Amino acid sequence: MIFGLLFIIFNFAFIISPYWLLPELPIGKFTVLVVTIISGIIWANYSTGRLQLQYSIKSFAGLVILLSVIFAINLGPLSSSIPWRGDEDFHIANVLALINDLQPYVSIFVLAGFVVFLYLLAKNKGLAFIWYSLIMLVIFWALAVIRILPLGNPVFFPRYPYFTYWITAILLKIPSIIFTPFHEEFYRLVPLLFTGIIIWLFIRVSFKEISVPSFLAGIGVTTIPLVFYYSSIFYLELPAVCLMFVVCLRIDHLLHSDFNEIRNDPAWYALLLLGFIKETTLPFLIVFVIFRFAILFLKLKKSGQNNFDEKQQPEPNPLKRIYAVLGQEVIISLLVLFPAVLYLIFRSSLAEISRGYIPAGNNLLHLSTYKVIIRSLLEQFGPFLVIFLAGCILLIRQKDYIKVCFFLSSIVIFLIFFTADDWKFIGYSRFNLLILPEILACSIAVFHRLKDQKILGPVLSILILAVNLWISPVNSDGTKKPFWGNYNYDTSEHYYPYEETLQWIKDSDIHGSILFTGLYYPYYFEFYFHKLNWFPVYKVIESEENRNEKRDILKMLTIGKEENYTFVIYHILGKDIPTIEKDTGYEHMQEICNMAHCLLVFY
After folding, report:
1. CA distance 574 to 577
2. Which positions, given as ranges, span the membrane (predicted)?
């Protein structure tokens, strides 16, 4: 019944996102398009099962209240300037390009169609659903043709999967017409929403109801340093983390169900969607596939070839049954891995991507590597690392061996996978997000055990909250602490007060020209010029990363004066502001700082 939705998702990911336009020759484009469409139809058809949603107004109200609390906690980080470095500016720019391409009626159609889809699915109106799916597919393809054909040379850079960009653009198209799309908060609400869903699921599974103790536990999860840091940055990881968490909550059923049963589980569709969201979830998917096969072989060994299925009488030809079950297992594996593998094929064979994965096994041979990993886990997960270990012990005592083995295996595989990457990224916080679902899923056992403890449970949550706030990477003004979550190399986000600085210059001299300097990496200035509806003459001169800042400032001020720039904005890298002589050609110097960094404005 959900073939239509799966095929539409596939189309957004691989057809409307025009990977098939990357080959140079027309015959290559046509071939890739046809093969992609056919493979998408086959994938969606085999992935489809029977699914009926259940919901309650009370449960939905609890989610809304929880999201409101999480929003209030993250109010400062949501409105902070786009960081210098990191990839948030890249992701925002991609969504902005799609928003500019989208017509409002497309966004309205897709959103309205999705609401109708959920209604029909919840009411289990099969025949109406089938007709609706057919109509949706016809209209969708018409819109797809309208969207793609005029794009002779689309602005398209397949460094990351585009599916999340499309969903974000569709959601933001209507608000962007009313408020303009140049508000950081719009984009950051996406990871915040998925953070809220993760915490809501954590509460529902741990406590079975929304209450004061459950809310305290939820706030404890919200303020986990890793969660607090990334819940207000527009990256692709948190939607993937949310889907992984859904899978972890249903991992027993997903690992033991046969091909027909597994497709009726909502978590099955979360598993399928992972490959569309983030290609780095592939290790998680591979662990899932390995465990499925391991469990199958254990069943074969235990039950014997002549009595594989205990519910049925021994078959005259047991090998035929075994081959059929193995065939179904292969199909499940292909369905789960296909979206991520297809994206990686497109990315590696049709696109020129400078940042690839090249394993460096020697990273695993150094003791310093493991010191960094342990430090990163302690700093980024805080008290929840202890809760996780306690949860593992409880699961073992409950004889949930397969579940705890799956969680531990997934964590270890991810740590090895990223440790064997470039040495710069060992312990990197953004990569450690992908072990958050397993840690939370294991921690549920502890909170579920304490849910009836009226004193011990809330006290534990309050202690967790206190420690989380003590080691928090978020400053009180909403900026993030520089270099947090980086151990071997600076690849983190740096929050500079560029919006405040540009607003101050606009108020001071709206016609003034600007020289930006002191940066050694580009910054998304155009976003704030559009946000302020102000387009001054400006120039960017990058400086060396390793430089004497005092000498570099004097050099750039000389250039600024020679080229008659009204303002020179200097990007200070370090914590200390050098003393500058008065005779620089500029009469005044203004320091504009937040709790993370400072900018110097000469005028």
Report:
1. 8
2. 5-21, 27-48, 60-82, 102-122, 129-150, 162-182, 189-207, 238-255, 267-300, 321-346, 401-419, 431-448, 455-471
